[in-house]
Predict the structure.
Amino acid sequence: MPLIQVTMLKGRTIEQKRKLAARITDAMVEDAKAAKEAVVITFIEITREDYASAGVLLADKK
Amino acid sequence: MPLIQVTMLKGRTIEQKRKLAARITDAMVEDAKAAKEAVVITFIEITREDYASAGVLLADKK
Amino acid sequence: MPLIQVTMLKGRTIEQKRKLAARITDAMVEDAKAAKEAVVITFIEITREDYASAGVLLADKK
Amino acid sequence: MPLIQVTMLKGRTIEQKRKLAARITDAMVEDAKAAKEAVVITFIEITREDYASAGVLLADKK
Amino acid sequence: MPLIQVTMLKGRTIEQKRKLAARITDAMVEDAKAAKEAVVITFIEITREDYASAGVLLADKK
Amino acid sequence: MPLIQVTMLKGRTIEQKRKLAARITDAMVEDAKAAKEAVVITFIEITREDYASAGVLLADKK
């Protein structure tokens, strides 16, 4: 705790995930006073066909 | 906002997702007075091995 | 299955939720060929302080 | 209802998922007095690159 | 890891949650070979107005 | 997109959430190349009775 679930488009590199994990954890520790060992982050990757905003799939946006 | 996460079995076509995204968004706008641009939908697809009801995997149901 | 989780601002009436549940379920049945009895919907209500877009809390937007 | 979402590392066999589904459902029925038919479980499998604790990806831990 | 999110109706006692946490964790350790210290469980409690199946709110079922 | 769901103990101030929202969004923009307007964050707050690790409720830990 805290648990952070990040849902994002497939395609980020492991290096990008590494940086995200470090920075989001730092934010939770410094701003929310969470214990560092207790911060858990998961990345859920989805495709452009599995995300829609304003009623339109991302795959259908130009 | 609102955010709608749909967890369903793999296998729907992009055309089915397109229709779902449009209809769910319309419902949120018309019935819940959400701003259309703010409605976000994600589809999480899982297999019959990753879903259980009444204690039994879908993969094990006849 | 399918499972639909709707995260939205607190304040909708039960009548609005009733309509959303009916319409989203109809969409899943008609467009995704889900079995009606298997469609499960949950509403998670949050406050304007617990939602941010573009880095700004909704509570802080004018 | 209840809905149980299990996020875990990829790699469990169908037999392991079968046992987990049965045992978690039994716990919900016996300890939380849930109706058996209403217990729904989903497994979301992720890779070691998509999970971090204490700011470090599991893929980076020795 | 694993992370287990349990969405259920409000009203369970702390003693029920205590037993659920223990049993679900045991299942993850014994059947999925998870490390005990790494099993995290969260309970999200919702009302009968915030849950629907087959298109009908639980609050509307007799 | 991306969508970030933060589940944490109740008790953070609005100022803490404000900072978290800003920093997590910056991380998504700078490290994951997300469009700033598309980053959505939700905070789900739970009690010590609704969180367990290693099979024990946080409320039961000394």
